[in-house]
Amino acid sequence: MRYTPRSQGRKLIIPSFFFIIALCVLAFINEIRFGSLLSFGRCALSNVPMTNGSSETPLLSSSSSGGDEIRILVGILTLPDQYPRRHFLRMIYGTQAIPNGVKIDVKFVFCNLTKEDQKVLVALEIMRYDDIIILNCNENMNKGKTYTYFSSLPDLFNETDSPNPPYHYIMKADDDIYIRLENLVASLKPLPREDLYYGYVIPCQSMDPFVHYMSGMGYLVSWDIAVWLKDSEIPKKHLEGPEDKVFGDWMKEGRRGKNRFNAKWSMYNFPEPPTKCTHELWPDTIAVHLLKNQEKWIRTLNYFNVTSNLKPSKLYHIP
């Protein structure tokens, strides 16, 4: 039998038709499977937070929306030219663990800049760390800087979308004090959040927080007292003198600080040289004051074993 080109073409058309049908069916099945997998993937990833490698959460913050959240501002009063000290303290506080549900902001506080190099270097610090408050005052220790600090805060932190109050507690601290933030938080949790005056009672022999005042090494008040200082005429008439004693005078004259807490001997001066205000380093410490040189800082940091969480790595060898 002889085949013609036309008869051969007809025989090829039928298998080709079924082959095309088979391809369409296979493609349809694969499309269904892919769609199902894609939907499953979307579902599985819907609860995974997306990150871009950065975080807007402050370094010293572990906030939650719970009702027990504590917000603390620690203002370290220092001088504009103290660049090495600020960088050192950023390491000290930036490596401390913060309990869940707690927000602690550590800010460096000083008065107006007066030198051209400060305007550049401090601006760079702010751009990098955003942890500086520059008050509208002339630099001083005992002529109103503390008043300017506390009384400025209600206007500095008055954003409408911020919590109310923005901070439950505000601390004024020297730049030669080591504060153990976790212990500070633990001591504050049972305390009132209004009309509170907290610190190390002066004189050193006294344990009664209602007789005199709290040492300038580091004392803390509730937010409402900062609002009172802003509005009251009492501090404006008495700005000069030892800043911690003057602050105590304001509290006494204004009958403020009905809730007082003496943190002695969890707060104390470095043990050497020994005085009536010193104490040996011990585990229940909240703050150690008068760390005037690197040797005292290193002894204190070693005692509290602050580098215990250093992770092993091939990149360094620290015995």
UniProtKB/TrEMBL annotation:
Membrane topology annotation: Single-pass type II membrane protein
Main location: Golgi
EC category name: transferase
Pfam family membership, one: Galactosyl_T
Cofactor: Mn(2+)
Keyword terms, alphabetized: Glycosyltransferase, Golgi apparatus, Manganese, Membrane, Signal-anchor, Transferase, Transmembrane, Transmembrane helix
Keyword Ribosomal protein belongs to the record: no
Highest taxon of source: Eukaryota
Subcellular location, record wording: Golgi apparatus membrane
Signal peptide (from-to): none
The protein's Enzyme Commission number: 2.4.1.-
Transmembrane spans: 12-29
Pathway: Protein modification; protein glycosylation
Annotated family: Belongs to the glycosyltransferase 31 family.
Name this polypeptide is given: Hexosyltransferase
